[in-house]
Amino acid sequence: MTTTATSKTTDEVQLRELIAEQRAAMEAKDMDRLMKLYIDDVVVFDVKPPLQLQGVAAYRQMWEACLPYMEGPYRLEVRDLQLTVGGEMAFAHWFLRLTGLDVGHPLPWLRNTAVYRKVGGTWRIVHEHVSVPFHPENGQAALSLEP
Amino acid sequence: MTTTATSKTTDEVQLRELIAEQRAAMEAKDMDRLMKLYIDDVVVFDVKPPLQLQGVAAYRQMWEACLPYMEGPYRLEVRDLQLTVGGEMAFAHWFLRLTGLDVGHPLPWLRNTAVYRKVGGTWRIVHEHVSVPFHPENGQAALSLEP
Prior knowledge:
The structure is a homodimer of 147-residue chains.
Chain A: H1 10-27, H2 31-35, E1 38-45, E2 53-54, H3 56-66, E3 75-86, E4 89-99, E5 110-119, E6 122-131, E7 134-135, E8 140-141
């Protein structure tokens, strides 16, 4: 069922807490806190190469390689989050962008799809796909689109 | 549960049929056949702009705008399909590329994430996210990656 402001199941509340915790852990750059939210064999289609990251160790390695380029505090701005719960599985999608980093230009809006499963009573992230579209006519990523 | 060669539930069989039907409808360029597989309010994060397509009519319009550039027969090559079923919801991801089109260069491998729900006893596509990664250092889409 799709969440609404007036009717929220326990699963929906837990999933919104998971999404908020993921965002907080990313903003805190706390990798231990972040990686707890993923299953061990998560598959991530990330915004930059390679095509896929297989397993939470590979995902963590990607983050650790990025952190030196993310000096100082930053925030994740989120728009249009939609969450759907279906028993033992759920998914959500939203737009996000990093703000506050001193990179000299605005960072692009990204599309995020996340899939969740309940593992031992706890919702975990089993798959993520983060991307920007690209222009087929010139091979450039579409970095200035607004949601 | 993740599908294996030796243990397949009815849901898994139906979902694999849906995925095969989607591919066949795309290869046949049969939009009526293809659109039947999607819920009316599907949200698609497509490989090219805009950021999202909301609703099956918008998705169909995108396809119809593309078909004039897809003269002649083509095939969808698929690799590394993984399907997970969890009650009334399921998801799959795979790599795909178009082959056989006379465009003078190989087309890139795309990442595809699809989310399904059972609606009135029938599995339908409720969300898709298709993309290539991009190189943050130059803003170019990563068009030559191999799975």
